Amino acid sequence: MSTRIPLLYSPKLLEVFKNPRNMGPLEDATVVESAGSPACGDMIKIYLKLVDKEEDVIIENATFESYGCAANIATASLLTEMVKGRSLREAWKISWRQLSDELGGLPPIKYHCSILAVGALKRSIRAYFRERGVKPEWLPDELTVEEKQVLEEEEIMERYSKVSGRGEENAGGKP
Ligand code: FES
Fold this sequence. Notes:
The protein has a 3-stranded antiparallel β-sheet. It has a single domain (11-168), classed as Sufe protein. Chain: A, CATH 3.90.1010.10. The protein has 175 residues and is of the alpha+beta class. The chain has helices at 11-18, 70-83, 88-92, 96-102, 111-132, 145-164, 166-169; strands spanning 31-37, 42-53, 56-66. It is globular and about 55 Å long. Strand 1 (31-37) and strand 2 form a beta hairpin.
């Protein structure tokens, strides 16, 4: 008999997980950023194709690559759908909680999957402006909840991989 307890995913999350949109690298991406640690296998990469439009920068296209679980794939898929056509300023406001709610809620143990997806998006937005040496007034200096938690997880995993030697084993990515 299995001792595993099945996770309670919402029907919407399962639906999105089974039919993910925008998966894979984007050849002509303007900016690419990742969040998470390849050493533990939980990692996501966000690709954004951006265009300047009047006062704003618009997300024309968005894709993702996930080395995470079903919840990470579903949150990343929905996130890329949500940001397409939005300005960076609007996309910045999306929180991990909002993303989770849009999917009918996540089990608490899976909150971090939504946090990784939004953390990678926020990093991409920061990277875009950093590379151009500009900083819009709406972009805060202080890291958001998602960015802080991603950083924390990455530091923990780096320490763990050094102690266990997993970093070298998995240097080529998740098997
Ligand atoms: Fe780590 Fe989902 S991405 S458990």
